[in-house]
């Protein structure tokens, strides 16, 4: 199988996700400190940094899986609602792929993918099934549609999770370390799907430790440490000429192994 190539568009992007002055505490711990980040439509932003730097928390505030105390987040011009139906509606526009696959064990692969469109988007079953099969084909597992999650490998389950998010036709996809629970030989099959998504113009915010992937697909790399954005640059700039000592130290540790 040939490795997917990355085609990046350098034209300016219309803002889709805008975070302004976002602060978040866990008790006395200040985990996000005045985060300012704008993600444009069709842009792939990769969040990297040491453990405990706030990457996953930042990702999870975008659809309010984590609350925050101050600042604002807007998605496609709409302020992130605090609760209720408005929040549920907005979450339907924000796909989320977790470290663990979070599939329903008692439902088939096809049922896992159609559940959201039928329940939330009120799509009829025939249309939902057709769309789900197209998406399962896209992620390379249409032949597994009748199986249950436990019958699939971790890499296959994660690809189902991606298809399930895509079935909601989201405006932006959030990935919180999507390959970290996978065996090494399964990582590339998930990353290949994500490369294809990036090429299709999907807006993506990705927390990952996969530096080769970050280098290949990112429009921008955002480096966090101690709850702050320390550096933001193109992959080329960041990996070849990091500006901060913190980033140089981090890259020195991970790129030499």
Automatic annotation (TrEMBL):
Q: Where in the cell is it found?
A: Cell membrane
Decide whether keyword Transport is in the record: yes
Source organism's superkingdom?
A: Bacteria
| Keyword annotations of the record | Amino-acid transport, ATP-binding, Cell membrane, Membrane, Nucleotide-binding, Transport
Q: How does it sit in the membrane?
A: Peripheral membrane protein
Keyword Membrane assigned to the entry: answer is: yes
Q: Which SMART domains does this chain map to?
A: AAA
Q: What is its main location?
A: membrane
Question: One Pfam family name from the record?
Answer: ABC_tran
Could you cite one Gene Ontology molecular function of this protein?
A: ATP binding
| SUPFAM superfamilies noted in UniProt | P-loop containing nucleoside triphosphate hydrolases (SSF52540)
InterPro entries with a match to the protein in the record: AAA+_ATPase, ABC_ATPase_HisP-typ, ABC_transporter-like_ATP-bd, ABC_transporter-like_CS, MetN_ABC_transporter-like, P-loop_NTPase
Which parts of the sequence belong to the ABC transporter domain? Answer: 17-251
The Swiss-Prot or TrEMBL record describes its family as follows: Belongs to the ABC transporter superfamily.
Task: Name it.
Answer: Amino acid ABC transporter ATP-binding protein
Provenance organism: Ornithinibacter aureus
């Amino acid at each position: 199988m040939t490795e997917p190539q990355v085609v990046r568009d350098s034209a300016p992007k219309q803002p889709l996700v805008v975070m302004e002055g976002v602060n978040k505490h866990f008790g006395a711990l200040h985990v996000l400190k005045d985060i300012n980040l704008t993600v444009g439509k069709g842009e792939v932003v990769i969040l990297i940094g040491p453990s405990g730097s706030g990457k996953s928390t930042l990702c999870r505030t975008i659809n309010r899986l984590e609350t925050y105390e101050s600042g604002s987040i807007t998605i496609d011009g709409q302020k992130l609602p605090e609760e209720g139906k408005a929040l549920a509606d907005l979450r339907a526009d924000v796909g989320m792929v977790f470290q663990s696959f979070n599939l329903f064990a008692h439902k088939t692969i096809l049922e896992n993918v159609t559940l959201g469109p039928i329940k939330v988007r009120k799509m009829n079953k025939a249309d939902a099934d057709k769309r789900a099969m197209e998406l399962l084909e896209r992620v390379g597992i249409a032949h597994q549609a009748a199986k249950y999650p436990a019958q699939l490998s971790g890499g296959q389950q994660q690809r189902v999770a991606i298809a399930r998010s895509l079935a909601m036709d989201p405006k932006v996809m959030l990935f919180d370390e999507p390959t970290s629970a996978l065996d090494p030989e399964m990582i590339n099959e998930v990353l290949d799907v994500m490369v294809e998504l990036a090429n299709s113009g999907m807006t993506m915010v990705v927390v990952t430790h996969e530096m080769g992937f970050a280098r290949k697909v990112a429009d921008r790399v955002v480096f966090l440490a101690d709850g702050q954005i320390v550096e933001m640059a193109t992959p080329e700039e960041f990996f070849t000429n990091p500006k901060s000592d913190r980033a140089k130290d981090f890259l020195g540790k991970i790129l030499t192994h």
